Amino acid sequence: MREAAMIMTEPISGKSGNALKRLPEDEKEDSTPAPVEETELVARARRGDLKAYDELVQRYQERIYATIYHMTSNHEDANDLAQEAFIKGFQALKSFKGGSSFYTWVYRIAVNKTINFLKQRKNRSQMSLNDLDFNAEHDPDLVALVSDKTPRREAGLSELQEKLNEAMQKLSEPHRLVVTLHDVQGLSHEEIAKIMGCNVGTVRSRLFYARQQLQGFLSDYLK
Amino acid sequence: MNPDSQNFDSLRQLLALKRHEIPPPGYFDRFSRDVMARIKAGERGGAIGSELSWFQRLLSAFDVKPVFAGAFGTAVCAFLISGVISSEQTPAIGSVAPNPGNTSLATAAVPVSMSAMDEQPFAAPSNSLAGSLFDQFQLETRPVSDRFYLPNGN
Question: pTM for the full model?
């Protein structure tokens, strides 16, 4: 478990990723942005200060977008849903009691919106994948995976990306969400439990089942 | 059940690929601006909503509470029915007694039967317009086409 959390030590992505470096489990609580500042921003935003809310949006936009994108495998849908989640967040700020962090709260809004959207979409799953960044070609894990594990298939990164997203889309929404939040976003089980509104044991069992399923779907690429 | 106790290393290596999927360049520079613009547009929409006409406010109230719509519809129906009933009780406006000296429009309003029109389509109706206001114009009926009737008898 500890090892699992230690593996991912780079920021999730971009400027706001600096606030959420992947750290060992016992240091995870420190990874959230300074709570006082966030509390103040939330208080100002509740009074209608759009600049304060803009600051909050900029702080979490990449993580929210990424979660939705990994859930939908569609950039346009992720863009719409992420925007709607932040708009809903602003409209519902008055109901935010401060029991959890703003980040967890807005995450929950985004996740609920995404799951509702996916339930409605059901059979209309058209992927619209983002490009891989330049670093992907130099990521030692991925280079090893492509050259060692799938040499005879000559699978490029783009093919792997497509197959991976297809496999992700085969998972049920709760299982996909757990894999996304834990293995891609690097959140702890406890944070995922808060976001999903379930207990940690459920998160663990869903993660196990989802990984097993993914391993089956991607067996050709994991030999 | 510990999900990390199994050997999922290869899978997690592969899942790392997803972290390299990035939206188009400059996307996040525009994102918060778009969100703010939509929030402001929504607020403006709310402000405009407060300046709606009474009719639009009424319609929006109907949207929120259908009971209002039902009550309003019932009231309108009751008003119409009471109007119809009260109009039947008052004397009809058009029922003026015929007066020989005053051949009014009431006389002209007598409908000409369609069968009579069929028999003599171009003949002036007997009595119907006699002494009416139309007399002063010396109404003359002529066929539309010479093929059927020629005035010089040819």
Answer: 0.60
